[in-house]
Automatic annotation (TrEMBL):
Protein name according to UniProt: Peptidase_M3 domain-containing protein
Cofactor(s) needed by this chain: Zn(2+)
Residue ranges of domain Peptidase M3A/M3B catalytic in the record: 305-762
Lineage of the species this protein comes from: Eukaryota, Metazoa, Ecdysozoa, Nematoda, Chromadorea
Cofactor note: Binds 1 zinc ion.
Length: 779
């Protein structure tokens, strides 16, 4: 299917992009258009020359520079427009990919505007899915494919450039893509048309009806269906202040990232750290093995630092600075007022939309559905897990006194380090030696073997078929059904970390299947495993093994979804209309393989030095170690989930100041006294910096509940192929074609149960006693 972008009226395209109007003293800065071989294409910046006068005397209309890319002179655009089988990952230059994607997005924006004008003249009786929605979906398919492929290229094989410029370019094109695709939902003619189609159901397929329902839910939850001037002004005012204080909150956090660093020069202090952690902490990435290393005031480094730093005083200092970050100790970057303003304005926005609280608004279309459900879930976990944590404190304290010479009470800064070390000692597991059982490609082959067996899937390596790759390390797999022969798509996996690779583990849906174009589905999987060396293969630490399992699970989830539409392929975050608290159910199901000894042994390989297999007893010890070591992190997640819900379920935020609530809940949850300058909510971005994520912190535990509930069903039915096929047909094939709660009930025949996750973290006493008895006998 070939089309020329020149059909778009250039005047209309220009005026659509930036129609910035004010007095005649606006001065645009120079547009920087350097080669993408060295620097990235920059956005246009505008500066006010002076204040707007009382009487406007004239206007300037400032237009952006339009990339001169067309399908005739850009091989990347040509490849997509001609519906060629595989993207130009190697032969297309970075400049062609970036500017080509920008041009396609601008063309699509003009198409949306033209189509909205057409809908205004289309009589209601002539409206059909084919002439209301399909014209936009056709172009969206190509634009999304270009965008996802560009992101893959930027993250895995982009020319060296200034990091800030790179981040800005990636951010700008992400925002541009999201804004252009959501723009149609703001149009009243489009809203009326899809509402009419959805209500009549005339000629709609099941997937088309679900897509329209998703559109309408997003429109309602976002307030886009409010068209009277008064309500629009009120919503605009609330949104304006939400954006303002959100920006101030993030600025406060970002501005304090480098105020403190914590340097380790002695390798003995950090001797337990695996290679991927040493790389994160290394001051010089080229000398990550010899150091020195440092922890910065960012989650990316501070948590690994706290987990592996053996210097207690250094941990104490780092934790004190981390928890006081952007708090009352900072005059200029104190986020306390920003927290209260965010609560106030989000509450006002939610109530204007017809909800009683922020939590009710955010949870309305989620699997949990209401704050009451989440509250019940949190309370059930707290009742089971808190006694275990209190009891385990004795074991942690005894080990710390015996092995680390910590004679006083354990403190918050001790817990990440002590809990990990105590679990490894308790079951006599050496995680660094364990890595020798998990070389990357043999482990990956074992994983696809297990998943292929359970779900009747066949993964065939087709890397040698001549497909272009962004890097030589990548491999390509064709995925199909063993029995029916159905082709699900192809998986592109780039496994290793390297110098010009950015970001971490990631999975993207490059394109859904398109029968009209004769194209199959493509999924991009970006890994971050340690690269092999001349002396040995890439080895996975158990933390990276969990990342591999999780993201491979996401890849399979995307491949098996039969949705013809990207928006409902799976429940995407952060859309209000999607029940994405259940999105991680299947990835977490695979991630939990590390806690199942038989599965862990199956995906392992013989030790690369001794050539001995991972024994059943050793696999059992490893699985127990990972579960035991994760208890404290899970308990802190439970605390933050409770705090998040408590903050946003209030119908009047004036009922309690955020700090008073934090102090009260901290005392309820933790056995040690809160530090005087612990103001961690002031820098806890998952709760306060991301709008749709408010009240959603519980989702990690929710996904674990669903995953462990499914594992329990596999154990009870004892027929993995039959149970796996049912899971595939009732949940995975349906994607987001129905609400997650209904899909789960089709598989289980009931609602989710908290029993499995409670038993995982707090085994029943009889089981726990048996485990402890066998451990004592073994010792």
């Amino acid at each position: 299917m070939f089309r020329s972008t020149s059909r778009i009226p250039i005047g209309k395209l220009l005026t659509r992009r930036i129609h910035h109007q004010t007095n005649g003293l606006i001065i645009p800065s120079k547009n920087v258009r350097n080669s993408l071989h060295k620097q990235q294409k920059r956005q246009i910046l505008f500066k006010m020359g002076n204040e707007t006068p009382a009487r406007v005397v004239g206007y300037y209309v400032v237009f952006p520079v339009i990339p001169e890319e067309t399908v005739e002179n850009n091989c990347f655009m040509y490849n997509i427009a001609k519906s060629e089988d595989w993207p130009k990952l190697a032969t297309a230059e970075p400049r062609e990919m970036y500017e080509g994607t920008v041009r396609m997005l601008m063309d699509y924006g003009a198409t949306v505007m033209e189509h909205m004008e057409h809908l205004a003249t289309l009589p209601p009786e002539e409206r059909k899915f084919e002439n209301v929605v399909d014209p936009l979906l056709t172009e969206e398919y190509e634009v999304n494919f270009a965008f996802q492929t560009l992101v893959l290229k930027m993250l895995t094989d982009w020319p060296d450039c200034n990091r800030k410029l790179f981040d800005a370019d990636l951010h700008h094109i992400k925002i541009m893509c999201a804004r252009d695709q959501m723009e149609k939902l703001t149009n009243k003619e489009f809203q009326d048309a899809i509402k009419q189609l959805y209500e009549s159901k005339d000629g709609l397929s099941e997937w088309q009806s679900r897509l329209l329902e998703w559109y309408l839910l997003e429109i309602k939850a976002s307030g886009l269906d409010k068209h009277d001037d008064k309500t629009r002004k009120v919503l605009g005012s609330w949104s304006k202040f939400v954006d303002e204080y959100r920006s101030k909150y993030i600025t406060g956090v970002m501005s304090t990232n480098d105020q403190q660093t914590f340097v380790v020069n002695d390798p003995k202090i950090i001797k337990d750290a695996p290679p991927h952690v040493l790389q994160k902490l290394a001051i010089d990435e080229q000398n990550w093995e010899s150091g020195p290393w440092r922890g910065r005031m960012t989650p990316h480094t501070i948590y690994p630092f706290m987990q592996y730093c053996g210097d207690r005083q250094l941990r104490a200092t780092a934790w004190e600075k981390w928890t006081s970050k952007a708090g009352f100790d900072h005059d200029f970057y104190n986020n306390s007022i920003n927290i209260e303003e965010l609560r106030h304005n989000n509450e006002g926005l939610a109530k204007t939309l017809g909800y009683t609280s922020v939590a009710e608004h955010r949870l309305a279309n989620k699997m949990a559905a209401s704050p009451d459900t989440v509250r019940g879930f949190i309370n059930a976990l707290t009742r089971r897990i808190r006694p275990v944590v209190i009891d385990r404190m004795e074991s942690w304290s005894a080990w710390a006194a015996r092995c680390e010479m910590i004679t006083g009470e354990l403190q918050a800064y001790d817990m990440p380090y002590v809990c990990r070390k105590e679990a490894e000692h308790h079951y006599d597991v050496n995680p660094l030696d364990l890595m020798n059982h998990f070389p990357f490609w043999p482990t990956f082959q074992n994983i696809i073997g297990v998943v292929g067996h359970i779900f009747n899937l066949e993964f065939k390596d087709v890397t040698d078929k001549g497909y272009e790759k962004a890097h030589a390390d990548a491999r390509i797999y064709s995925v199909g059904d063993k029995f029916s022969g159905q082709h699900y798509g192809r998986l592109y996996i780039d496994p290793y970390d390297r110098q010009n690779k950015r970001g971490g583990w990631n999975v993207m849906l490059a394109r859904p299947e398109s029968k009209e174009r004769g194209l199959d589905k493509i999924v991009y999987f970006i890994g971050s495993a340690i690269a092999p060396t001349s002396t040995g293969p890439s080895l996975l630490h158990h933390q990276q093994l969990q990342q591999l399992l999780f993201h491979f699970g996401r890849s399979v989830q995307l491949l098996l979804s039969q949705s013809p539409y990207r928006d409902i392929a799976i429940p995407w975050s952060p859309f209000y209309a999607s029940d994405w608290d259940a999105a991680d159910m299947f990835p977490t199901f695979l991630q939990m393989f590390v806690t199942k000894p038989n599965l862990l042994a199956t995906i392992s390989s013989p030790h690369i030095v001794t050539n001995k297999p991972l024994s059943e007893e050793h696999a059992n010890s490893v699985a127990l170690t990972i579960s035991r070591a994760s208890l404290w992190d899970t308990y802190r997640t439970l605390f933050w989930s409770d705090f998040d819900l408590s903050i946003y379920e209030m119908e009047d935020r004036k009922q309690k100041f955020w700090l008073d609530m934090y102090k009260q809940m901290y005392e309820e949850y933790f056995p040690f006294k809160r530090a005087k300058n612990d103001y961690q909510p002031c820098s806890f971005t998952p709760i306060f910096a991301l709008q749709p994520h408010m009240s959603m912190y519980y989702r990690k535990l929710w996904a674990e509940m669903l995953a462990l509930d499914i594992h329990e069903t596999f154990d009870e039915e004892d027929n993995e192929v039959q149970t796996g096929e049912r899971l595939k047909t009732t949940i995975l094939n349906r994607g987001s074609g129905d609400v997650a709660k209904e899909l789960f009930k089709r598989f289980q025949g009931r609602n989710p149960s908290v029993g499995a996750i409670c038993d995982h973290y707090a085994p029943p006493m009889t089981i726990q006693e048996g485990i402890e008895m066998s451990e004592n006998q073994r010792r």
